[in-house]
Amino acid sequence: MMAALPHDVMANWVSFMNKATAWFYVASGAYLIALKETYELIEGYEWPTWVFWVLVVVMAGIATGNTAVRMSRAHELVEHE
Questions:
Q1: pLDDT for 10
Q2: Each residue of 46-57: b (16+ CB within 10 Å) or e?
Q3: Which of 5, 22, 27, 45 could connect to 9 by a Cys-Cys bridge, CB 3.0–4.6 Å?
Q4: Does the pLDDT of residue 81 top 70, yes or no?
Q5: What is the pLDDT of residues 31-67, one digit of tens each?
Q6: Which residues contact 39 (CB under 8 A, 6 or more apart)?
Q7: What's phi and psi for 36, nearest 5 deg?
Q8: Helices (H), 1-81
Q9: Which residues contact 31 (CB under 8 A, 6 or more apart)?
Q10: Smallest Cα–Cα separation from 27: which of 64, 68, 80?
Q11: Cα 32 off chain centre by
């Protein structure tokens, strides 16, 4: 299927995928930093470890929910054009 695409479309697709992959790595690093900082916050206030895990799940849920809402809105905007 990809071989059937015109060269300029394929070049744009490859460029997009390279940028998307790079931003995925950046976001993954930011998530790891957030985990470290959250753990240090939990330790600093001497909260139980389970609070850390609850916060990790909440952070992941907020990030996933935000992504789902933004993709849904983008889809609606594209469909109405």
A1: 92
A2: eeeeeebeebee
A3: 5
A4: no
A5: 999 999 999 999 999 999 999 999 999 999 999 999 9
A6: 52
A7: -60, -45
A8: 7-44, 49-79
A9: 63
A10: 64
A11: 12
3-state secondary structure of 45: coil
Place of tokens 């916050």: 41
Q: Convert the pLDDT of each residue in 2-40 to its tens digit.
A: 778 899 989 999 999 999 999 999 999 999 999 999 999
Sign of the torsion formed by the C-alpha atoms of 24, 60, 57 and 48: positive
Q: How far is CA 41 from CA 28, 30, 34, 60, 62, in A?
A: 20, 16, 10, 17, 19
Token output for 39: 């753990």
* Burial (Cβ within 10 Å: 0-12, 13-18, ≥19) of residue 39: middle
| Residue showing tokens 């992941």 | 60
